[in-house]
Amino acid sequence: MKIVFPLSKGGFISGFMLIFVSIMKELDLIILIMTPHHLHAAVPGLPVPER
User: Fold this and answer.
1) 41 burial class (0-12, 13-18, 19+ CB within 10 angstroms)?
2) At 48, phi and psi to the nearest 5?
3) Euclidean distance between CA atoms 49 and 46, whole angstroms
4) Is this prediction's pTM over 0.85?
5) What element of type H or E holds 39?
6) What is the C-alpha to C-alpha distance for residues 49 and 11, in angstroms, rounded to an integer?
7) What is the DSSP code string of 1-34?
8) How many Cβ atoms sit within 10 Å of the Cβ of residue 25?
9) Mean pLDDT, all residues of the chain
10) Is the C-alpha dihedral spanning 24, 28, 30, 34 positive or negative?
């Protein structure tokens, strides 16, 4: 373990960053789509309350 972990540490960090960046891209898209007038576009399965 003393040899393997330092060698694989870069791969773990790269994998985490790849997943983190892809999640942040999708979250940004959902925030841009979800406006007060178009709430149903971002969440199609949930009912929209009447105003």
Assistant:
1) exposed
2) -95, 125
3) 9
4) no
5) helix 39-42
6) 46
7) -TTHHHHHHHHHHHHHHHHHHHHHHHHHHHHHH-
8) 10
9) 77
10) positive
